[in-house]
Amino acid sequence: MANRRGFLKSLGAVAAGSALHAPMAAAAATSADGKAGHVVVVGGGYGGATAAKYLRMWSNGAVKVTLIERETSFVSCPISNLVIGGLKDMADITLSYDNLRTRWGVDVVTDEVVGIDVAKRELKLAGGKTVAYDRAVLSPGIDFMIDEVPGLEGNLERIPHAWKAGPQTVVLRKQLEAMEDGGVYAIHIPKAPYRCPPGPYERACLVANYLLEKKPRSKVMVLDSNPDIQSKKGLFTKAFDGRYKNNLEYLPNSTLVSVNAETLTVELDFSEVQANVLNIIPPHRAGRIVDMLGVELINGRWVDVDWLSMEAKGAPNVHVLGDAVFPAPTMPKSGHMANQHAKVAAAAILNILAGQSPSVEPVVMNTCYSFVDAKNAMHVASVHQFNAEQHTFLPAEGSGGVSVAANELEAKYALSWAQNIWSDMLS
């Protein structure tokens, strides 16, 4: 148990761009009655895949872990903007779950959860099976509130969001390739909080980069519901006003009223914008599987958790990770943070199964890279220390920071970060 405690206290020491390391637990965890536990993880993304692996690794294989995931492969949202910008292929961001099966002994089940009985500790699958658990981990990511954008429902092939990497990524890329020179690409950003705060601005830069090189008479319009750029403001402003000053226009306070799929028109509060390629990112909420828990969501959208264990308040024995939770102060919704949540939860679960309290006060960190063109990237980093008095994570004093400028070295770090965290999750 000491090794897990030591890990939790050192989570924030992971350097940007370096591999994620953690010591193995010396002893296998068992449940209070002396039997090894069964943990079912739902969702195989940055949070769920990490939790499944570390539960097996830190218990020395004693705890049975079942991972339930709808898709047969993992497709990464981070780095997917490079696909949209024509700099990477889908194969570069698609990875297998095979190592979780063969190396770590995770039972990976391709199915979908259609029911949760919290009292009985059972999950019902679309395929008809019922799976019992001692502890469940939900890492469902986000779902979109399509109904809040009049005109969007039923038109996602025409107006893609591409905010879940996969088929939508391909749809948007193909639309950009087909757009004639002189066309307009418009992206609309929802009000925060949303998944990956700098992501829309990175996408705008990479599309502007593609158009500048391949379709120089074309234009990018960034329609932001927020009053200002939400992350790396100075650095993105420099890119917008510098390299892209002639082919990108940024419009803050662009409250979305409706969209017209036939004309690809966005109606805003005081104006309309017509585009040749329209990329609407709808407002987010926790993946709808959390509605099966029967708990009250914060703002009707996000799960409230106990930050020491990631256990959902009002749903005993169920832990929720990543983008689905209501964030602690300044804590971003990101793949890196979901990975950190997973390790906090895994350590807590093993302590609980061993009859101990998840009483360690963890430190977690986040690093987020953004490309501004084919060769240059920048990062923002933050460290979050658990505060026992407020029982939440707070920004660690004097920690974190942002790049001085986008540069080629950080682009190399960004790609290394992706390879390292994918390995940490899946290898």
Can you tell me about this structure?
The radius of gyration is 21 Å and the shape is globular. The protein has helices spanning 2-10, 48-58, 80-84, 98-102, 167-178, 199-214, 233-241, 335-353, 408-426, and strands spanning 38-42, 64-69, 73-75, 94-96, 107-110, 113-117, 122-125, 130-132, 135-138, 142-144, 184-189, 219-224, 248-251, 256-260, 265-268, 272-274, 277-280, 284-286, 305-306, 311-312, 318-320, 363-371, 377-387, 392-395, 401-402. The two termini are 24 Å apart. It has 427 residues and is α/β, with parallel strands linked by helices. α2 (48-58) runs parallel beside α8. It folds into 2 domains: 2-143 and 284-426, FAD/NAD(P)-binding domain (3-Layer(bba) Sandwich), CATH 3.50.50; 146-280, FAD/NAD(P)-binding domain (3-Layer(bba) Sandwich), CATH 3.50.50.
